[in-house]
Design brief:
single chain; 17 strands; alpha/beta; nine-stranded mixed β-sheet; elongated
């Protein structure tokens, strides 16, 4: 076999032409201290704030403290197998979570990983955990109602799409129930819901998921879960993950509702992480930026202007008070950030008034802008009348000595309080709410015994659905009570009360 020199030289030339040197630089550091869910790392000089960093044994962390000689990282996993001297790698990515419609109907952890055993979640889109809130120019006023399905809320403390309404009260008096009822009422309203449980018991969240599934609400809901058993960093990032998931819908011209349950536990988790990172403590050992922690989260709720698609993100943060003290540090912080609060009072709850909304201390700073005109027409004076009733309530025991006007006010107030009671997980459509409130405010119930009001309400809804379904349809369609509709509703109420009394 003859070897030709020119053939060999041509092959070598081709290989030289294709030869390229590829160099890859990796910035690595090493652990100098680890424990309590925190790792201090030396050597990551160019690491970014909130950057995802990779530890050995598949553990990831987030760079939170960028100090002169080391980086303080929080760990999303067990530090059991990590030790001093282990190599830590930068990923070059700021902490992000998967977003999109693929997450709807799923239960995930704050990293977007599934917890429901329904297989992996394949998403194309990712959004950063922290994102700057839309500016004033990008927003428009809140004017579109977000119906909760609760008579006491929709009539007196209305919530609009893009609003931030705080739910505040002691433990075990119905805060989460109120938020869950609001999620149930979004069925068919084109609102995607995200329920984020921060530091909750797994069994409690399991019941919530069962309730949502039983009412068909998981078809439009994502549950983000950080259990009490998880490390504090999970509870710290959970609400930001949920906000990022909600922003996907907001920025694509859709509507989303996020329930943060609850921000008290979020503040506790952040305090724990901050103290372990040796950040200087302030009031009640919270770090100095505890206000900024919640303000940068809740400011992301907005109603975007029409040029940006007109999407909205509504926030319902929940804060737990101790013995009714809502002048404590975290409650006052969150009250000052939000557009109003719904205060649930223990005395009302234990007195059988549920939802236990204290009308005097609850407020919606958006007000009637977030109500349809028909609701304004029937419930305009309801809040004032209930506040007056609460003042007169103390005199009820001396009713024999009161003048007729005061007695009439007490009678009307008692019946309206009874009428605004509502069973758990039974939200009402807005047209039904308007019809029943009209029945109460027009004085039709003044002669009805208090114990009969609950039965009367059920029968009234059946009566309206069977005999006057057209009136309910007209209220839903027109969204206001014109003269004909008002006359029809008045006649329907008169006929019903005459039949019920007899």
């Amino acid at each position: 076999m003859e070897v030709k020199a020119n053939e060999i030289s041509s092959v070598i030339k081709k290989q030289i032409e294709k030869y390229a040197i590829t160099t890859q630089f990796e910035e690595n550091g090493e652990i100098i201290q680890v424990g309590d869910g925190i790792a201090r790392v030396y050597g990551l000089e160019n690491v970014m704030a909130n950057e995802l960093v990779e530890f050995p044994h598949g553990v990831f962390g987030m760079a939170l403290n960028l100090e002169e000689d080391n980086v303080g990282c929080v760990l999303f996993g067990s530090e059991r197998h990590l030790k001093e001297g282990d190599v830590v790698k930068r990923t070059g990515k700021v902490m992000s979570v998967p977003v999109g419609k693929e997450l709807v109907g799923r239960v995930v952890n704050p990293l977007g990983q599934p917890l429901d055993g329904k297989g992996p979640i394949k998403t194309k889109d990712f959004l950063p955990l922290e994102k700057k809130a839309p500016g004033v120019v990008a927003r428009q006023p809140v004017k579109e109602p977000l119906q909760t399905g609760l008579k006491a809320i929709d009539s007196m403390i209305p919530i609009g799409r893009g609003q931030r309404e705080l739910i505040i009260g002691d433990r075990q008096i119905g805060k989460s129930t109120l938020a869950i009822d609001t999620i149930l009422n979004q069925k068919g309203q084109d609102v995607y819901c995200i329920y984020v449980a921060i530091g909750q018991k797994g069994s409690t969240v399991s019941k919530v998921v069962q309730t949502l599934e039983a009412h068909g609400a998981m078809d439009y809901t994502t549950v983000v879960l950080s259990t009490a058993n998880d490390p504090a960093p999970f509870s710290y990032i959970a609400p930001y993950s949920a906000a990022a998931m909600g922003e996907y819908f907001r920025d694509n011209g859709m509507h989303a509702l996020v329930v943060y349950d609850d921000l008290s536990k979020h503040a506790w988790a952040y305090r724990q992480v901050s103290l372990l990172l040796r950040r200087p403590p302030g009031r009640e050992a919270y770090p100095g930026d505890i206000f900024y922690l919640h303000s940068r989260l809740l400011e992301r709720a907005a109603k975007l202007n029409d040029n940006l698609g007109g999407g909205s993100l509504t926030a319902l943060p929940i804060v737990e008070t101790q013995a009714g003290d809502f002048s404590a540090y975290i409650p006052t912080n969150v009250i000052s950030i939000t557009d109003g609060q719904i205060y649930l009072e223990p005395n009302l709850f234990y007195g059988g008034i549920r939802p236990a909304v204290n009308v005097g201390l609850s407020v919606s700073r958006v007000g009637g802008n977030a109500q349809i005109k028909a609701m304004k027409q029937v419930a305009g004076r309801l809040r004032l009348e209930l506040a007056q009733y609460r003042e007169l309530e103390g005199f009820a025991k001396f009713s024999s000595e009161l003048d007729k006007t005061t007695q009439a006010q007490l009678t009307r107030g008692q019946r309206m309080v009874e009428l605004l009671k509502q069973e758990q997980n039974q939200p009402l459509s807005v047209e039904k709410q308007i019809a029943i409130i009209f029945l109460g405010t027009q004085g039709f119930l003044d002669e009805i015994p208090l114990k009969e009001i609950g039965r009367l309400e059920q029968e009234f809804f059946q009566y309206m659905e069977t005999k006057h379904a057209n009136i309910l349809k007209d209220i839903a369609a027109k969204k206001k009570l014109d003269e004909d509709l008002q006359a029809g509703l008045q006649g329907a109420c008169e006929d019903f009360i005459a039949g019920f009394s007899s």
